[in-house]
Design a protein that fits this description.
Elements: H1 12-43, H2 51-56, H3 61-77, H4 84-117, H5 125-152, H6 157-170, H7 172-191, H8 194-199, H9 201-223
Helix pairs in contact: 1-3, 3-4, 3-5, 3-9, 4-5, 5-6, 5-7, 5-9, 7-9
Amino acid sequence: MRTDADEVGPGTLSRATAAVYRYLVLAVFLAAAGLPTVVLWTLLAPEAGNAVLFAAALLPAAPALSAALYAQRAWAAEPDLSPARPLLRGLRLNLRDTLAWWVPVLAAATVLAVNVLFAGTVPGGAVLRPVGAVLLVALAVWSGHLLTVTSFFSFRFRDVLRVAAAEFFLSWKTSLGILALLVVAAAVVVTGSEAVLLLVGWAFAAGLWLVVRPAVDDVTKRFTRP
């Protein structure tokens, strides 16, 4: 009797081909999810009045990355040839929980970003800018932990916030890894464009999965029962 795992042969070539196929599907999925963001960012002028629109354009990002994380673990557990099913399942299961924290995070990030970018126009901006930049970076790294928790666990909302805050320090290597990925993503946008980041989104998602796996194991040990 065949199982889904039998769809991928035992040979190295067949497994490598299946892995390429999975990440090709992931690349298309992330490109489709991120295309509205890139289009809106291209059309919007870099003005303070458009800050809310810039943030709103990022709404699909966290649910799409959550689905990508969920799918990558599912692919490792069940190596079949239907990689889109875990992606869509992860999107459906985690959409509400992800948006529950992602919307407030985007609102806070918008305020901080405006303070950083336009601090020079107000008195005391020289002090306000570095403080806002540090808070913005910390918020981004914490968001990575929030994404991890909501992608793989079903906690109450306040517990999601607490666990992610604890893992920010407990899984400090993961925090540094998330920060490194964010720096790389920013460098890609600065040296290339948002479109380039969209094209390599699958690589970013793959790197994110490698970075957060220790945190997933730590959350499982510390905050769940066998």
